[in-house]
Amino acid sequence: MTERMWNNHEMLPSYDVVIIGGGAHGLATAYYLAKNHGITNVAVMEQKFIGYGGSGRNTAILRSNYRTEEGILFYDQSLKLYEDLAQDLDYNLMFSQQGHFTLGHSTASMQALTTRAAYNQAVGVDSTILEPPEIKKMLPEIDISNHPRYPIMGALYHPPGGIIRHDAVVWSYARGADRRGVHIHQLTEVQDIIVEDGEVRGVETSRGRINCKQVVSCVAGWSSEICKMVGVKLPLVTHPLQALVTTDYKPWLHHVVVSSTLHIYLSQSDRGELVCGNGIDHYPHYGMRSTLGFLESYAAHLLELFPILHNVSVQRQWAGLCDMTPDYSPIISMVEEVDGFYVNCGWGTWGFKGSPASGWNTAQMVAERKTPERIAGFRHDRYVKNRLVGEKAAASVGN
Amino acid sequence: MPKVLVVAESKNGEIKKPTLELLSLAKSQNLQAETILIGNDVSSHADLLAGYGAEKVYLADDAGLSIYNTSQFTALVEDAAKQSGATQIWLTSSETGRDLTPRVAARFGVGALSDVTELEINGDDITVVRPCMATKLVQQCRFRNDGLKVISIRAGTYEATEASAGSADTVSLSIPEGDPRVEVRNIQVEETNEIELNEASIVVSVGRGTGGTEGCEFVKPLAGEMGAAFGASRAVCDAGWMPHKHQVGQTGTVVSPDFYFAFGISGAIQHLAGMSGSKVIVAINKDAEAPIFKVADYGIIGDLFKAVPVFQEEVGKLKN
Amino acid sequence: MEIIVPIRQVPDVALNIRVNDGVVVEDGVSFVISSWDETAIEGALQMTEELGGEVTLLGIGPQRVSEALRKGLAMGAHKAIHVLYEEGQTDSFGYAKIMTKVMEGRNYDMILTGKQAQDTDAGLTASMLAEFLELPQVTNIIRFGDLAADGLTVYRKGDHGTEVLGLKLPAVVTVNDSLNEPRLASMRGIMMAKKKPMESLTPADLGMNAEELGLQGSMTEVLKFEKPESRKEGERFEGEETETVPMTLQKLVSEAKLAV
Predict the structure, then answer these.
(1) Are residues B117 and B203 in the same domain?
(2) Which residue of A184, A187, A238, A266 has the fewest C-beta atoms within 10 A of its own C-beta?
(3) Is the pLDDT of residue A1 over 60?
(4) What is d(CA A379, CA B34) in angstroms, rounded to the nearest whole number?
């Protein structure tokens, strides 16, 4: 008989902490609560199955070459946790730290990338600017000729960046948490959060009521739904984000390539498939459908960069949800109006790479009931206090 | 007065069970029924058909009709329908039925409802239920016109009741010219001694879990011992482990036996669409998460190679 | 070899299909080309690649059908005809009548399509079209043979075995998915699809009037859709096969009346 990676437990009538959302962030939070703080009387409530949301749908790119001090340090902590994660969780996560290119196609773009390189270097994160001939040496198939529209003028090269097997991260965090006594309840929808006298008392689920003192919301694209339950309004707008994979080919692409101007990114997975993504869809929507428009625009831009890929076949398309914040930085915060409620969201298109640091710091915040220094910049009230952490240039494609 | 013309089918010298199901249905609904039988050397079946309730048997018996062809069969059904004054034409859901149903309907300038699994008959006023969306949904349909109604009914939907001895009132149809544009050259017939998939009351079926032809052949004798038809999933047939004639599924044969035993079948949608009409489903699979367990009435989580010999032993005991 | 491939855009039946008040919920549904029609497109492409000629797709339906046609063009088809049709519920008879009008005056050797559409699973339209056009038909083919002076050889899966037929063209042929494995669209194909000719027609352009369209032009009517009674998961047995099998058989005999 094979051993189960995580077990199905009877749901207890009460837990110390309830985490809503069984994605990488929720499971990492549970794992670090148990591992770093010895808090194991924890339940993770997942409305469908773990990894159903963004964790199972992203293009699995890891990097820390962000723009703000808060951002760079946070994602750097995350990347370093990723580097040791396979050993920590005793599971092959197939992290390939193969190096990450962000191509610049205009003077303005190059200026932004150069600034990012400088900020990265200032806090000890490895990033440099490369010229087109150097890019061509590492990516022989790329077209650096003088395109009429978007010639490649240079790139931000970030050696620690790479790709990982996203499902493996979710499953191994689940196993790690489960082994330490955390209960994971799938197909269990949280339908309401019970608040009395400004304090969290418990949650109502599709399988009954659970009493608890602390609730952590880690549901990304669905955050508005959960926050409604406690009367918290967050400046989140949910947009679909699409992706596709091609059929598999012999390994030829050895680095992650992103073009902000052309709005595309791609990498080659260990299975040989090209994993490709784009910017978010323009309309706010909860639908996770694929469109022909995405496919057509992706094909056009991909072939501008890599003309030899014209015969590559598209195997499958899918989409996920992105909860976008005004400053493209996450919200990891306690909510003072509701004692015991913590929100972890605003992960937009930049969530998966932040999972370990997100879990680590959220766990610390829940255990110590105060905001760790590392995530002080990500409070939910920074928007009214006008202390935005502007990461749009670095967090997404589309500028 | 409603009158049904049943398009009968025969194979290997016998009237196929679905034909008898249709005649029995007409009888149970107190509908006047006649039937047309087309083939080679089929006239001897007329009395049997009469015993099942066919008041008249229209016969087209000719060597050239031993293999199905659209043109002659359509013309013959058209002829019989006109002669009989039938208000309804019923066909089965065999490949012949599927090819013939729309052509006959269009010949008369009317519509058709195919693969029906439930009929509510009030004379000529008919409402049907039929599966759609790979059997994920059913739709309730009716005819909009008052004229001729053409329906094909899924095999196994209704029971064939016991017949009395019959003496047929036969009408010989003149054999029309074939369409010169379609030449039936040959037929590659596969073994004929096995029980028909869509007529069997028990089906023993194999999937990818068998691992190959050897694995399939390991399970096959159990079918014989249970008096069952032997089926296979599409994966097995596409991989060449078993001939396509065994294929159960939307693109193979749709079955609705009393008992369906699925050995090493995971339960892909198009397979489920082909056997979800079974009364009792028994699944044997190593993988507890296999989708087939969601529809199985009895699910054995185990190794089919260990289970089959035990099945054989127990079945042997039951027979004694 | 000029081949017209009528295709149908259907909800993806692999996903959850919901019904509200007897009507299928289209909101949030992913639409795809019906799987057997993809097989037909592939069959047509292979044939024209070998024998020359062009593959023309035909789609009838609302605006979203043009996406399905573009996906077919991305696979390699040469042109497409979109009959912009928003007349509501229409049955196979109705669609066959519209297709008959589309075919008027067009040159083709074969009309090739899937044996049934994945939404209705009816399998009626192609044969009705063949009758209205007075063309020969062969349904459920699993293989194409050679094209010779005396016709195209086709292999049909019939009730008694595989029928080998010689077919004089033009003809209507429907395919079984055993015929081939449809190719995936390539990046270049996806891009070039935008430039391929897409003819847009309305029923008025075809000279059709209201009585011939929608429910009025149909011979049958869908009253409602429903979820069938779902099978409930039954009993499970785990353990040694020497124990679970006899236990199961005993229950089959006593509870389910199995008789061998």
Answers:
(1) no
(2) A187
(3) no
(4) 81
**CB–CB contact C186 A302 (8 Å):** no
Contacts of C12 in chain B (CB under 8 A): none
Q: What is the per-residue pLDDT across A213-240, written as a single tens digit (0 to 9) for each?
A: 999 999 998 998 999 999 999 999 999 9
What is the mean pLDDT of the segment spanning A303-328?
Answer: 94
Mean pLDDT, chain B, as a whole number?
93
Query: Is 90 exceeded by the pLDDT of residue A248?
Result: yes
In a domain, C228, yes or no: no
Tell me if C187 and A296 make a contact (CB, 8 A cut-off). Answer: no
The angle that helices A292-305 and C65-75 make with each other, rounded to 10 degrees, is: 30
Q: Determine the average pLDDT of the residues in A149-155.
A: 92
pTM of the full predicted structure?
0.88
Residue of higher predicted confidence among C149 and A217:
A217
The set of residues, in sequence order, having a beta carbon less than 8 Å from that of B285 and lying 6+ positions away, is B209, B262, B263, B264, B265, B266, B292, B293, B299, B300, B301, B304
Residue at B152 is within a domain: yes
Residue B189 lies inside a defined structural domain of this protein? no
Does B183 fall in a domain? no
Q: Is the pLDDT of residue A92 over 50?
A: yes
Q: Contact A314/C186, CB-based, under 8 Å?
A: yes
Write phi, then psi, for C131 (nearest 5 degrees).
-65, -45
Instruction: Say how many domains are in chain B.
Output: 2
Residue from C10, C93, C155, C254 whose CB has the most chain B CBs within 10 Å, to mutate: C93
Does residue B278 belong to the interface with chain C, where contact is any CB pair within 8 Å?
no
- Which chain C residues are closer than 8 Å to A240 by Cβ? none
* Three-state SS sequence of chain B: CCEEEEEECEECCEECHHHHHHHHHHHHCCCEEEEEEEECCCHHHHHHHHHCCCCCEEEEECHHHCCCCHHHHHHHHHHHHHHHCCCEEEEECCHHHHHHHHHHHHHCCCCEEEEECEEEEECCEEEEEEEECCCCEEEEEEECCCCCEEEEECCCCCCCCCCCCCCCCEEECCCCCCCCCEEEEEEECCCCCCCCHHHCCEEEEECHHHCCHHHHHHHHHHHHHHCCEEEECHHHHHCCCCCHHHEECCCCECCCCCEEEEECCCCCHHHHHHHCCCCEEEEEECCCCCHHHHCCCEEEECCHHHHHHHHHHHHHHHHC
Chain A residues with CB-CB distance to C under 8 A? 246-247, 287, 289-292, 295-296, 299-300, 302-303, 309-315
Q: b/e per residue, A62-73, with b = 16+ CB within 10 A?
A: bbbbbbbebbbb
**In chain A, what percentage of residues exceed pLDDT 90?**
87
Quick: pLDDT tens for A173-210: 999 999 999 999 999 999 999 999 999 999 999 999 99
Task: For residue C170, say if its preceding peptide bond is cis, omega within 30 degrees of 0.
Answer: yes
pLDDT at A399: 42
B135/B231 same-domain check: no
Same domain? For B22 and B162 the reply is yes
Count the domains in chain C.
1
pLDDT in tens, C49-75: 999 999 999 999 999 999 999 999 999
- pLDDT value of position A351: 95
Interface check C28 vs A, CB under 8 A: yes
Confidence bin at B192 (pLDDT 50/70/90): low
User: Same structural domain for residues B81 and B8?
Assistant: yes
Structural domain contains residue C254: no
Q: Tell whether the model's pLDDT for residue B307 goes beyond 60.
A: yes
| Residue range of the domain that includes B217 | 197-319
- CATH number at B37 reads 3.40.50.620
The three-class DSSP label of residue A248 is strand
Q: Which residues pair with C111 in a beta bridge?
A: C4, C172
> B133 to chain C: which residues are within 8 Å by CB?
11, 13, 17, 24, 118-119, 121
